[in-house]
Automatic annotation (TrEMBL):
Protein name per its UniProtKB record: Protein sleepless
One cellular component (GO) term of this entry: side of membrane
Keyword terms of this UniProt record: Glycoprotein, GPI-anchor, Lipoprotein, Membrane, Signal, Transmembrane, Transmembrane helix
The organism of origin for this protein: Aquatica leii
InterPro entries: Sleep_regulator (IPR050975), Snake_toxin-like_sf (IPR045860)
UniProt-annotated location(s): Membrane
Residue runs in coiled coils: none
Length: 127
């Protein structure tokens, strides 16, 4: 495939991954309990989602370990929060992201697909 085709492919994949950025951000919303559905591994079909309609709000995934009666309970929460949330609170893990349903797991598939297509384009260009 010629270089121009690879470049066009990269641009198309990039645009497809970023369509709808102007609309409200969609985030998974759940909180784990012992035996809950919000923890890792995560099953996106088992939880609800919500729209982040307020300005400067992002999707959140946080993990914390609660100590109750000398017993440790791992808790995972996913929701929509202000962009300053992780700086104001103390958690074992707190991550924010700004693409639809990005708080599902540690891997952002749209970023991976962009990187893969970019790598293929660069390989074709320099060969």
């Amino acid at each position: 495939m010629c270089t121009h085709h690879w470049l066009l492919l990269f641009v198309l994949v990039f645009l497809i991954n970023h369509v709808g950025k102007g609309s409200a951000l969609q985030c998974y919303t759940c909180k784990s309990a012992p035996g809950g559905l919000c923890g890792d591994p995560f099953n996106a079909t088992s939880v609800t989602s919500s729209k982040c309609t307020l300005p400067d709000y992002l999707c959140l995934k946080q993990k914390q370990i609660l100590k109750i009666d000398a017993k440790e309970i791992k808790e995972v929460s996913r929701s929509c929060v202000p962009s300053s949330y992780c700086r104001l609170m103390l958690f074992d893990h707190c991550s924010l992201c700004d693409t639809d349903y990005c708080n599902s797991s540690n891997v952002n598939l749209s970023t991976l697909s962009n990187l893969l297509v970019l790598q293929l384009c660069l390989k074709q260009f320099f060969n």
